[in-house]
Amino acid sequence: MYKMMKLVDTVRVPPTLLGEEVMPTVKNALREKLEGQVDKKLGSLVAVCKIVEIGEGHILIGDGAVYYDVTFEAIMFVPELQEIIEGEVVETVGFGVFVGIGPMDGLLHVSQITDDFISYDAKNARLVTKSGGKSISEGDHVRARVVAVSINEREPKESKIGLTMRQTALGKLQWLEEARKKKQQSREVVTEGTA
Prior knowledge:
Blueprint (H helix, E strand, L loop, with lengths): L1 E12 L8 H13 L3 E2 L3 E12 L3 E2 L6 E12 L6 E10 L2 E6 L2 E6 L8 E4 L4 E4 L5 E3 L3 E10 L9 E5 L6 E2 H22 L1
Antiparallel strand pairs: 1-5, 2-3, 3-5, 4-5, 6-7, 6-12, 7-8, 9-10, 10-11, 12-13, 12-14
């Protein structure tokens, strides 16, 4: 889930930028320092949006830079347990698919895709159901539920988000649309038969 948060941090403005306008210089320094960073409690900082307040600058002995205490608004990505998300399959492997959900990828293990048995078609880089003939591969859009979240602050790429599609109204969007159309057609047949 994306959230707008008001945060406070200290940012270093190097001496080479001291002649520049303070507001854009501080905003750029904040962006360079924080965008893409991950915090266990706050999530992943996607973008610094607005500077609310810049405090008095401080100079440390032996460092020509100026340090500013800054209050700012930022967009954060915070994956929450049981949250329903939609994303695009970015990679297909033998044990499941990785789904791009914002700045992170979630893992949809083969056991969490469908109740049907699934095998990996390495030649076509896709997962295929045994009986239904359904497949899922890179570029497909899916709706899933977040069932596990493990955020790694030091190595954000090592963060893990577990997903499932084994519940009602979840799955590959194409499958859901086909099921909806099939249900609509069966309703029309029943309505015509009773008229």
